[in-house]
Each structure stands twice: as C-alpha cells, then as structure tokens.
Amino acid sequence: MPAEATLPKTELPKLEPAPGHFDLLSQLLAEQAEMTAVEQFSHWHNSALHEPATAGVAYQALLPTSPLQLGQQYAFEVDLDACSGCKACVVACHTLNGLDELETWRKVGLLNSTTSSLPIVQHVTTACHHCVDPGCLNGCPVLAYEKDPLTGIVRHLDDQCFGCKYCVMMCPYEVPQYNPSLGIVRKCDMCAGRLEQGEAPACVQACPNHAIRITVVDVETVRSTTSEPSVRLLNTAPLSNITRPTTQFVSKQPSIHPSTQDVFSREDVVSRESVLVEVQPGHEPLVVMLVLTQASVGAWCVLAAAVFFDLWPAGYVLAASVTASLLGFIGVQAALLHLGRPWLAFRSILGWRRSWLSREAIAFGLYLGAAFSATVSCSFSSLNSLVAVASFTTAVVGCTAVYCSAMIYVATRRELWSLKRTLLEFSCTAIGLGLGILSLFADGEFTVAVLAGGVVCCALATVPKLSDWQAASQVNLTWNDFSGRSGRLLRSKLRMVFYALAGSLVAAALLTVAVLLTDNAVAKLALMITSVIALIVSQLLTRWLYFASVVFARMPGAST
Amino acid sequence: MIRQDTKSQRWQLPVLHQRTGELTDRLSRETRAIDLGALPVSNMPDTVTKSVCGFCSTGCGLSIHMRDGVAINVTPDHDYPVNRGMACPKGWESLRVLDAPDRATTPLLRLPSGDMLPISWQQATATFCDRFKAIQETHGAESVAFISTGQIATEEMFFLGCLTKFGMGMVHGDGNTRQCMATSAVAYKQAFGFDAPPFTYADLELSDVLVFVGANPCLAHPIIWQRVLQNPNNPDLIVIDPRKTETAMAASEHLAIQPKSDLTLLYGIANLLISAGAIDQRYIADHTANYEDFRCHVSAFDPERVSSETGISIDQLQRVVQLIAHGKRVSFWWTMGVNQSYQGVRTAQAIINLALMTGNIGRPGTGANSITGQCNAMGSRLYSNTSNLLGHRDFTKAEDRQTVAETLGIPVKNIPSQNSLAYDQIIAGIDSGRIRGLWVIATNTAHSWISSPRARVLLGKLDFLVVQDMYHSTDTARMADLVLPAAGWGEKEGTLINSERRIGTIKRVSRAPGQALADFSILRLLADAWGCSELFSQWARPADVFESMKQISAGRPCDITGIKDYAMLDRCGGVQWPWTVEDAAKSSEPDVHRRLFEDGRFFHADGRARFIFAEPKSVPEPTSSDYPFVLLTGRGSVSQWHTETRTAKSPILKQLSPAPNVEVNPIDADRLGIRDGDMVEVSNRRGRAQVRAFVTSTVQPSQLFMAMHNMQTNLLTLENVDPESRQPCYKHCAVALGRCVGSPNPRSGS
Fold first, then answer.
1. B34–A122: do the CB atoms touch at under 8 Å?
2. CA A288/CA A296 separation, integer angstroms
3. Which pTM was predicted?
4. What is the rounded average pLDDT of the residues B182-198?
C-alpha cells in the first residue's frame, strides 16, 4: 500500500478569493446553521403532540387480553421462528428508555449448529426473565429488588442500590447491568409504566416481525416445568431450576426448543457463549478483601491454637494478634472499593434473611469486633484464659464469616464455584496464609515447619485451578465441560497469570528450603518474609483466577 | 390494566430503604403524544418532523424528535407506508453517527510533508479549480473524472452530474451504485426497455409463493422482511443461496446451490416449467418477444445436468417447480447475490424470464423484483448523469442531448456526446494515465472497490485526489490531496428514491459541525469558483433542482411531473414514480401502493418484454489444490453499513455487530485443526486476511464467508466485472485457509 507521504505534493493556494465568492460562502454557511427544514415542515406534525393517534393499536395483539388472575404473572414470549436477528428491539430499548451509551436491557444472541449436515442459525432475543424465584432479588444485600405481587415484574430500585454488583452474579442470565458512571446496576422492568397505560414495551413495539409479546403465565406451571433438573430456556443456557425464569421461547424447530423431548441430545446446537470463552471480571477489590480477611481468620485460628497449647511467649502473641486483626480490618475496607456507592455500605445488612452478602457483612462486622477484643485481651499477658477464650471466639466467628464469603459464590450455582471447590480454596488460603504469616512470629524450631505448612496449604488452594488446567488437555470438550474450558483460558489468555501463580508458589517453597540452609538470623528473617510475600501473591492470583477464569452456562447474547 | 400495589409501600426509613429519588427519576417516562408513546422525560421533544432514512434502499420513514429547533432523537414513523413504525438499528441510530470526533469540519489540504492542513473554503475551492483545470489543460478535459454515490440526495447527484459534465467539461463519472445496482439496471433496461423495478412492497404480502435469489433480507433489509412475515397467505418461500442464511432458515425450500450455479439452476427451472406446461402461453404471446429462442435455449438444461452442476437433487428441483407452477401469485426477489456476479445481468434476466413465462408480472403479489442496496441508488440510476444522461437518457443520442439542453437551458455543446467510462474503467484509466484527477463524493473506494490493494495503489498514482465526505478518516479520505467537509443525512434537504420507486424527503434537522456544508452547497461554491455558476443560476436550493428533475422526467417512464413539491411528498407518505401531470389531474393523491406493467405494456417500442439469455460461463477463478476454498462475501450484520464509515460511530451499532470473522464449515475446521474462535489466515494470490474463525454449518464444506464490512475482505476479492453491467463480481474467488502461524495447535494439546 502506498504511504500517504508519497502522494502528490500540493502547493498552498493563493489566498485571493473571487469577489462575491465570499458572500456566497457566508450565505451558505449561514443557511447550513439554520434548521429551516423544521420551520417549513414540522408544523404538520405539531398536532401529533396534542391529538390522540393510533400507534399503540397495532401492538394490542401482542399484549395480554385478559386481566391477571391470582397465581399468574406477566412474561415475555419470544417466537424464535420470527426473530430474524435484526436487533431493532435492542436499540429501541436503548432509545425509548433513555438508557446510557452502550446500555441495553435486551440482547440478541446466536445459536448455531456445529454439525455439517444440520445447518442452523438462530438469533435469540432475550431480556430479563422476571423469574418466579429471582436470583437478583434473593442475592441483593440492600433489598433493592421487588417482585410486583400482581404482575410478577421484577423491579430494581435504583436509589436503593449501592452498586455491589452481586445481582449480576446471582442472575444466571446476567441481566442486571452495572452502570459505572452511576455506581448502580439497572435492569429491564418490562416497561411496567407503558404496560400500565396499555402501551407495549419498547422491544415489543419495535420488533418488525412481532417476535416478542407479553403473555400471562401461571406461576405454578412455571414452577413445575422448571423443576426438572435438566430444563433450560434454550440449549446451553443456564439451568432453569436456579431462578425459574418465566420467558417462553417458542419455535417449530424441534432441535432448538427445549420443551420437546430429545433436545438435550442435540448438543450440537450451541450458543456463541458456550463455544467461545471470555475472561470474566477479576473483581480486584474482592480479591484483596477475600485473601486478606481469610489470612486474618487463618492467623487467628493458628493463634488460638498457639495460645491454647501455650506455644508462644506473650509478646509474640500480642504482635501476631495485632497483625492478624489488622489484616482483617484492611481486608474489610478493601470491599468498599468494590462498591459503586460505598457511602451506603451500611445498607448491606438489610438483606440478611436471604442474602449471603448481608450475612457476610454481619459476620465480618462481628469478627472485627471479636478480633479487636481479643487483641486487647492479648495485651494483658496475665489473662491467659481470657486470651484463649477470646482467640477461640474470634477464630470461630471468623470461620463463620469465611463460610459466608464462600456461600456468596456457591449460591450462584456456577459449577466451578461449587461448595467443595470454593470451601477448599478459601479454607486452604486461610490456613496457608495464617500459618505463613504467623511463622514470622513463631519461636525456634517450629518456625520453618509452620512456614512449610503454610506453603503446602497455599498450594492446596490452587488444586481446583490445577485440575482445570489438566482438564483442558482433552481435545474435544463439550460446551458444559466448564472445568476444561476454564483450563483452556488458563492455557491461553490467562497463561501469564497462571505461570505467575505457579512461579510464586515455587518461589515460596524454594525460599522455605533456603531458610533451612541459612544460619544467619537476619538472612533467615529476610528469606521468610520474602517467602510469605510470595505466598500472599500466590493466593491473590488464585483468587483473581477464581473470578476471571470462571466458565459457566450463559444465556445466548450474554457476551454481547 | 395494572393497579398500583399498596401493600409493598410499607413505611421505611428513607435512608435505609429509598424507593424513589434522583436515580429513579433519570429513567422516568411520560406520554405527551400518544402516537409517539411514552418517552424518557430526559429526551422529550417539543415538536416532531419526518424524514426518510439515509442508509439502505428500504427507505423507511423516521420521526425526528426536535427540541429547541434541533434534532434530539429518532423513532420510526408509524404512518409511513414503507415501514409502519419499524426501523432497523441503523435507522434508530441515524442521529448518533453524526456526532463523531473525526467529522471533517474544515477543508483539509495535504502538505508536501504529507500532513493535512486545515484551510479555508476559499483556499479549498481555489485549489480544487486550479489543480483540476491545470490537469485538464495538460491532459485534456476528460482526464479529470468523478465518482458519485447512492448516499446523497437526488438533487445533489443531479447537480453534481450537471456541474461536472456540463460545467467542468468532465466526461467520465460513475457512482458507487455500479457496485450494487448496475446489473439490475441493465437487466431491466434490456428486458423491459427501461430501468424500471416493477414492484411495490405490498407485493410481498400478496404473494403465495416468494422466491428469493441471492438475497438475505433478514439481515440486509429487515424492514422489508417484516412484510414477508405479515403475508397472510402462509406463502411458500423458496430461497436460492449457497449459505443457510436467516432467510434460508425460514424457507420451505432452500436451494443451497454451488456458488455461481444460479444461472444454470434458473434455466433448469424454466425448462421444467415448460415441460410441466406451467407457463402462461397467452401472456407470452401478447406481451413478450423472443420466447421461442428462449425455449430452445433452456431445453438443453435437463434436470440431470442442472442437478450435477448446481448440487441440487432432482427431487428438490421438481418440488420447487411444482411450487412455482401451482403458485397463483409468484414473486421473484433478488439482491447482491445476483447483481455482484460476472454474469449477473443474464442471471437477473433469467429471473425476469421466469416471471414473464409464468405471467407473474404486473399483477398484485408478482414480479421480477430487484431490491436495491443504497438509500438513493434508484435516484442515481435516473438522475446522477453518470452512465446515463439525465432521466435515464442516452449521451450518444443527439435528440436526448437536445431535450436536456433545452429543458435545463444549457448549451447543447456542453453535453458530452460519448458515454462515460464505468467505475472499473476509471480505475483502469488511472493506471493507463488516461485519468489524472479524481473527485470522490461520499464513497470509500479504498475499502470497497474490488481487489482494494490495486485500487489503493492507483488512487495513490493520481495527480490530484479530492474526497468530499462527512469524515476525514475514511480509508479514501486519508489518501486525499484535498478533503472537502460535507454535511450528512439529517444536516441537509432533498429527496431519496427507494427500491419500490418511492420518492421521500430528507430534512435539515441537525447542525453540521464546523464549516461542513451540504454537498449541494459545496457544489454551488465549486460552480462559482470554477466560473460556471451562471449555467446553474436557477438552482439556489435543492427544491429548485427538484423542479428541474420534474421537467427532465417529463414524458419518460419515470415521469414525476405530477408531484407538486416536497410538502406533497410528505403528505402522501412518499410518492412512487411515475406520477404525471395527467395522473395528478385525475386524482389529487396517488394510491399508496402502485406497481408497473399492470396493462402488460413494456417500455420497448413494440410494448413487449424481451426474453434475454446466454450460455452460462465458468467461474473466473476456479478453486485449485493451492486455493481449495470458494470465498463468498456479503452483509455480515444488520447493524453495520458498507465500509462502516458512519455506523462505526455509534457505540451501540458497534456493540451489536460481530467481530470480523470468516465462517468455516465444521468439516473443514476439523480437518485443518481449526477451533471456533481461532485466528486463521485466508489468503490467495492477491492478499491475506487474518481473522477469527466462526465454525458454523451455515456455510457448505469448501466454502468460506466473510463480511464486506471487514476491510480485509477486498484484499482477497478478484477484480472481475460483468461485461454487460460492469458490476464487479464480489461473490466468488478462490482462497486458501490455514491456522495463523504461531497460534497453538489444539491437536498437540499445548
């Protein structure tokens, strides 16, 4: 291709315009700035703002004809055979609801077939499913969600939201969207205000093919059809028994519509989301929060044991308790950085009846109190039994809080965030870092053993990610082999992070060995501190990968 | 319908549970005009005006929401007969694309250093004239040419064609419509005697059998597609396309033919229809010519031959023939799959032949119907003064030149007596030194011209390249010596003519940035600077040119002398041509839907349509062992338009369109170790493209598909044109496919 610089060169022109020429230019520029067309033409349409017209009538057929009965609610119905993928619904939602740039509450995904003899391309328009058992509502720590008892519409209270984004994780369909400039999430309300006036929702009225309509569904019917363990809204979509979505996707194509019998044997009709894997948000403030609070709780557990068996002198215990509590305090503060509107953090406990996030907030609140009290008691070396009781209490409350942390993610029902994997990761991190950090305060011959124990536990925390890495060696992975697909991420886009994680663990282990081989006390301490730092780094990276490399069943369109 | 729930309004401390407030109010909606429905309070208009859309040829009507005299929002027009309250994402985002940091706001001149210097309009117009006149003095007036466009108002292309050819002495000028509609125009002209798409959109709702050839309206014309789904006759859909497109998904019969075997298939269908006696002898006798020769010609296309050449089973052929034979109202529709071919004119005529022989023309729900591409391709075909003299006349005919000269009050000697070079010949003319200066208006040659690397080299060879565009960042503008900043759709007035011959208005509702001017105003400045403005002194506003258009159309098949003014166009929801003074005398307003040839009289002197045919030719670049794949190209997303010059400016449209990819059949992917999402290389003798693989069974084995929006696609296409229409064949070339060097091989398990 020719470089632009090699194009013909041009001299600067003469600056003498022809007389009269300039007048024409001024006139044309002035005309360009005047919206004369509007003055000439718009008055025909002024009346539109005052006179009733008939626009809404065309969509009446797409709205329910009868009022809702008890036990019923509104739902979207999508005729997949009519959805041609034009995405007018998406832009209409954006425009008619005045959403911010790039914000759309409706998305259009794509299903296609991977079998040569079965050519299929199917676009899928999807929005909030106004679930019978909404994950967003159940997870919200500040009660910012309501399910309208009459219409069943799941509504978000924008002013109540403090931007924790937990609903984005809790909704299997990733419907609520975080708006960084506002610091809150927002979501589809089925244009409830429009429905109240008998007007169709934006997406319904904008679909040229009438593919979207509002129907009335029986809540009990939704409950029973979604209670089958394998039912999904569409192939490769999340399991419907998590939140019991009400959207009805209808089609005459049997291989797409799941209500027909053998659809799940049709594993070859898949969404883009189920084929391509994306790196998920790393949630760095949460990574710091989780690792530091877990280190703190682990340290208090180790400390409680040390006090109980009277292994350390009081001075060491006090220093260790201050360190452990400080870690917890910093960790809890880090969580504030995750919030869109951190000044409303006090609301986080409101959802304690349902939300593990609220329970975690309460548990860590109690934990910090217990840790503070225990630290204070440690400064009174004469009160040995009080120290033991306080330490033990702190450890127990801390373990409960870590359990709540784990349950926040377990509750999303993502396979890679299972109870087993999450508890293994979180508890090994806690004990590993607890041992590692407290090894700096340990006495004499135990020192290296404690550190080594820390290294081993920290290594154990990475077992789930190692198994994902291993699972990726399989050549043909099915869409729901989440572990293998996560492993593919670890081997491709996240390769450097995974190597850094492995490197930090190996470094910690080698440094620990080096401690054994060193006689110089100062060098020993320096090596141990470096080793502990390497351990902390390894756990931060593990936790970051816990978020970033998670692969789960996603709704078609979720990645658009 | 819904009563407010009172139970949920429990008393709460507002600080603890805040149900309303500033954030909630941001999304509040209100209904102030029932025909607009509820709108966000933050974006409430004080008045509304109307305009047709400036992207594709569907020609949807848009309601432009105005506040304080400036456009703030767009919604589809409920009353417009084309779209009935619907629009595709491009239409919805029409205003958003106007607001971009790379809008050209002043004329720009390339300095010897290669940098672009902002200059004044006086300097720009003086440079334009000095440079082009100097080239013309040295190399002859013909050595400066222009490339027009289907993206500006008819009045502007009319003025442009007159200014260049009657005022500046240019002879050669063509439009980017050569890339989309030339084939249809020539096919119609030869078969019907005039470039006259016969249909009205209502025909889509009236057919009982619809045949789509090389068309994917679901993606390319989604608002036209709504008519198909609203057809109450439960019609049979026959789709002829190598790919399983969205449209093919909806078909009752999808003929997934081998690429470019369409002509053979259509002749084979004609032959079977004749054998089945499913032809309209009376219509053929009364209204057509040359049928016997045609019958002889297609008799060689027996089902066995057709089956082996197209890959379609004889069974399916028979089924399709039966559907057409039994259809009472069969309509045939085609777009770029036919037009962008090395034998597109004959293919389009093979479709026309099917309509003629079965009498499926001139009646509701029938027709051989070409769906246009660009918003004003139809305007360009009639009024751009490029390949035809104004009003689809002939430059080489003295009486046509005389009529135009008298109508416009222009000396007849100013009208060239020779035809213009076509786009490909202008490009080739740069190579041979025949063309030295080029003026490109609202098109992006460096991206869109077939086999773009050569086009870019040749654009670089020009002595002087002027690009007139809304954005200074287009691939072509970045090569220009002089950039003239143009106002775009929404910033100027005029008319556009859609696929069904409907003339609609566009309005000036938004302020152009900086010193950008409407193309119309730029033409006035240049006419003035060139010293030929007295020739065009009657045209102070686009509406003045519209009057000239009416006069030019008088007595032609495209006669619009019965249209009073823009206000009438708005009042009637657009007017389809023809609408003559005689029509207007009979009825004050035209029917909303009108089709041509209802009386069976065509525009040839004898009133008969012609059967035109030829032996199918083999593909210009067959696959080989080195290049075993056929590369198909086409529209890849409903949210992008052509080279994305405008649509890429809208974040939402960008978000809605897939990342550039190449569609690969699973069998090929498996064989080559390509996984969905891998970076792959598509290459041939001309170039190489690196894109992500999209493994999908919608393309057949040994075929690949890439979207035209991707700049890399034209690195591969083969420069080859239909000899009749000189339209490039974008849809077929031979390529190789492989994994990108350096990307890990999944087979090795690394």
1. no
2. 12
3. 0.93
4. 97
